[in-house]
Amino acid sequence: MMKVLVVVDMQNDFIDGALGTPEAVKIVPLVVQKIRDFDGLVIATRDTHEANYLDTQEGKKLPVEHCIRGTKGWELCQEIRELIAEDPIDKPAFGSEELGQKLKACHETDGPIESITLVGLCTDICVISNALLLKACLPEVPVIVDASCCAGVTPESHVQALNAMKMCQVEIVE
Fold first, then answer.
1. Is the pTM of the predicted complex or chain greater than 0.85?
2. Tell me, what DSSP letter sits at residue 87?
3. Cα 15 to chain centroid, rounded
């Protein structure tokens, strides 16, 4: 049985760029250590928008250009990029259908997945979206979120997202 670590959107724009926060900066070394210590498959996602971002539904609700394909802000932060073997999964929405399909196929063809752990940014948007998407795709596989390796838009929304995930049977660890 294999364990999977999903590193969600550890990109420059979410760490110290357009939508960066002190909490996001603080988790970078913790995520780096988590990746180094992890014994299993490590997959990263990358929030990916195009030049027309402000014309999209998300852009109208959050009118801050970020993670525009090909920009420095779109790239994974260097310390994490160096540790990820595969290219990240680019995702145009909060949750990644491609991630769900990839892990479901892996579970069915390469043997069962023992657990899926998520870390990254932002707890209250993309981490929760992908955790719940993975629960739907693989309902019998434990989905875990390492709260110490996540940060939300605000500290309060981080805690709210963790509580919401607990209610949906996502295991929260510190």
1. yes
2. P
3. 13
